[in-house]
Amino acid sequence: EKPHIFGEMFYDRKSRYSLNGQLIILPHNLLVMDYGLGHPGSVHDAWAFQGTRCESKCGKALIACNHWTWADSAYP
Prior knowledge:
Layout lengths: L18 E8 L4 E10 L4 H5 L3 H4 L20
Antiparallel strand pairs: 1-2
Keywords: Metal-binding
Cofactor: a divalent metal cation
Pfam families: DDE_Tnp_4
């Protein structure tokens, strides 16, 4: 159902109303390291990722220097 306020922003590319959620987990123990919620469904995944602490504090070593992230080609 269309949200009452700013409803068109939540209309995604698959013609549904949705929210964008980002979840960053550690694969060796499946613990959640970071998450981002609240972006409308029309927002690109790479833009929503910028709202997470992992991206905004990249110089603060949330991910160690010799570690990497695994994501699809939508992320820079």
